[in-house]
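User: Second chain of the day. Same drill as before.
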Amino acid sequence: MAVVLIVLYALPLVFIFIYSLAQLHLVIHYIRYHLKGGDGDSRPAVREEDLPFVTVQLPVFNEMYVVERLIDSIARFDYPKNKFEIQVLDDSTDETVDISRRKVAEWRQKGIAIHLVTRRERTGFKAGALAEGMKTARGEFIAIFDADFLPRPDFLSSTLPYFLDDPGIGAVQTRWEHLNKNYSFLTRVQAFALDAHFTVEQRGRNAGGYFMNFNGTAGVWRRTCIDDAGGWEADTLTEDLDLSYRAQLKGWRFKYLEDVGSPAELPMVMNAVKSQQFRWTKGGAETGKKNIGRIWKSGIRLGQKLHGTVHLLSNMVFVFVLLCSLLSIPVLFVKNLPGYSKYFLMMSVFIVSLFILGIFYYCSIYRGFRNPFRAFFHLAAVFPAFLCMSMGIALHNAVAALEGWLGFKSPFIRTPKFNLTAKDKTWKTNKYLKRGISLLTVFEGFLSLYFLSGIGLAFYLNDYSLLPFHVMLTAGFGLVFFYSLKHSFKIRM
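Assistant: Same format as last time:
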């Protein structure tokens, strides 16, 4: 039995180590790219008369707090008015559609080509709305923005020239920025994670010639690329990731613009964070199940196959982190049995993985600070909190990943938006927030107590090798449980 436990404990560590090596490889590509000077401001020069016609699609569903500012920001693009149109793809079932209709009429009177597209049934969710818009879209290129974004006026003029310079580019993705990064502890941790994705991961994949993903918003597609890849499909919760892989398997290349930022709002309550994480994680698993076989049957090079596979399996990190965490307490007993301590040299693998993860996030932080010491101190301050929260949400995301791989279907649950950037404004009046707690939240509370027992065992057994791990797990699950309760019942704390 002890040997079985050791093997089960070792498997997650091996998977996490392999994943960390892939991340380290992206770090190397990221650093090499910037050491060579990167793109900088090397935007291709294009005459105004050569600019193509663009359709900007705004998929909206019950977004009464943010739809006005979204439409206003898009309508103020500095792109020639006769060369772009706006489609407000509004599937709302509340007063949002009336707000959209009013805004559309207002901007149409000002000479903007803007249209409201509604559907009686929300078939296919976001993918269905985008596909519906494609039926009447006039643009050679399709820009997409979710409701929580506020793109800058020069967005189109900053992205379209790359398509004209290279006919092989199928999509251009820009970096997400954050309107409310400093609103709370939750938003700071989310920004920390997303910044790493939109620097090291996206740039590393793009620089290495590996498949990267369109992030669902703040980017532009070449229409012929969408059509060639088979169009938007609603059989996964991440229609953007799915289309990205289908397009790149068709030979299309993507362009990532790290220097072009698109500001957006981060979720500021735990249940909104969980909703978003669940959709991303489960959708990633569904996309992996759908496309990993296609990757290995294709004629792309081995490096692309390996990185693509790791990318689409990344959702399983949460499953293995959870498994490793649950087994870590019985492992303490096995570790102290005669003759078994030598097998736990594998713990060094976890330490190496953690060190690699630290390098990964340090590179992302350095991009913002441009000062090695300030970047290090910021990493030291935020990285432990990020690790705790990542561990704390592992149960929630592990369930999402397993549902995706096992084929359990669920609807596209939107993430509530707030239109709040200042700390003196409250989220408590948002009508889209749901009260009550789920069974998973109850289990998160129990797990916090479970790992608290691991802290006690460290002192009882006089074995402190896993004490830092159990401290982070206790704090992580405790924080997730606490914020879930606080935000579900709108508690004042």
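The chain has a mean pLDDT of 92.

User: Great, on to the next one.
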